[in-house]
Amino acid sequence: MILFCDTSAFVKLYVREVGTDSVAQQAAASEVIAVCRIAWVETMSALARRSRERPADAPALAQARKRFAADWPRWLSIELTQDLVELAGDYADAFALRAYDSVQLAALQTINLELPGEVRFACFDDRLSRAAKVLGIAPA
Prior knowledge:
alpha/beta, 13% strand, five-stranded parallel sheet, 140 residues, 7 helices
């Protein structure tokens, strides 16, 4: 099984919060974990924001950033291409999604159509999850 994580799920591999155990179990059961290239900046942004909001957690979050950077080569990263961003533009309109959510959905659909095997979607955004279901992609 391929587990595609949007950033709302992916960051849970590095920061303990509601849903962390579920994502960790899904990741452990997967053959491949895939993310969109934009997950890098979204994850770094989420960790930086959390560090600003919770200064006492800054040392642990600095370690999480280091682990994340070291782990990045392990993940299958879906690249941003012209075809992908055009599809994302269509999805932004069709599903009333924000820009990066549209890119995440387009990356998910790209991997779903191009790679053999079952693709599951780990996501904690209701609108994005509903859009993936419309495309026939099962939640993780």
